[in-house]
Amino acid sequence: MPKKQQSNQQNQKLPVAKNEDVEYNAEFADEEDLEALERAEQADSRQQF
Fold it and tell me: d(Cα 1, Cα 42) in Å, to the nearest integer?
């Protein structure tokens, strides 16, 4: 079997990426979570009209 065809067959077995909504819980947040929250809020504010 050609390498490209074999690679395509392997890729077909991979799960499809999905966006998942997750709840933010300050009780379990670490510094990286807080930084990500801040970046997300900044991105949201840039998208508002």
Answer: 49
